């Protein structure tokens, strides 16, 4: 077999594989689409909606993924979450990013368990737990 043909086949396979894998940001959008289409959405509390999204993110994205980190940083600001998430996605992917279902639902997906979503490194305190005196 011609070496050039092998190189073309391998290159095509790699490029097709890269194109088919959604970014972490796109996966988060997909989870909001799932939430929006869930039959029980209207009966879910804000915390249940949050858990719906959070469980999927934690199960599918590594903690080092930019979408994971952005979601985790925006847990406590649901009113601003979509705007800030979109800015981060656009910056990281270098392409305009949007997600209609996240735009519609984000402010109703509310974290309220009072427990941190991740264990913080020793000596790091969340702002809400800080002693400001």
Structure description:
The chain has 133 residues and is mostly helical. It has a domain at 22-109. The chain has 6 helices and no strands. The chain is globular. The model is unreliable at 1-20 (pLDDT under 50).
Quick summary of this structure?
With 133 residues, this protein is mostly helical. Helices cover 58% and strands 0% of the residues. The N and C termini lie far apart (74 Å).
Summarize the helices and strands and which ones pair or pack.
Layout: H1 3-20, H2 24-37, H3 46-60, H4 66-73, H5 78-93, H6 100-105
Helix pairs in contact: 2-3, 4-5
Descriptive terms for the model:
disordered N terminus, 133 residues, globular, mainly alpha
Q: Which series of helices and strands comes N to C?
A: HHHHHH
In round numbers, the mean pLDDT is 77
Specify the helix fraction band.
55-70%
Structural class: mainly alpha
Q: Give the end-to-end Cα distance, rounded to a whole number of Å.
A: 74 Å
Instruction: Give the helix tally.
Output: 6
Largest sheet: number of strands, sense, barrel closure: none
Outline the low-pLDDT stretches: 1-20
Strand content: under 5%
Task: Tell the overall outline.
Answer: globular
Strand segment tally: 0
Give the C-alpha Rg. Answer: 19 Å
């Amino acid at each position: 077999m011609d070496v050039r043909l092998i190189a073309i086949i391998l290159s095509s396979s790699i490029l097709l594989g890269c194109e088919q894998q959604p970014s972490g940001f796109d996966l988060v959008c997909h989870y909001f689409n799932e939430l929006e289409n869930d039959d029980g959405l209207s009966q879910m509390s804000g915390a249940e909606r949050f858990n719906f999204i959070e469980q999927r993110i934690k199960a599918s994205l590594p903690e080092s993924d930019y979408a994971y980190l952005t979601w985790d940083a925006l847990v406590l600001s649901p009113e601003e979450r979509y705007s800030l998430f979109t800015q981060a996605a656009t910056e990281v992917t270098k392409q305009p990013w949007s997600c209609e279902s996240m735009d519609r639902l984000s402010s109703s997906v509310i974290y309220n368990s009072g427990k941190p979503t991740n264990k913080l490194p020793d000596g790091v305190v969340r702002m809400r737990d800080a002693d400001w005196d």
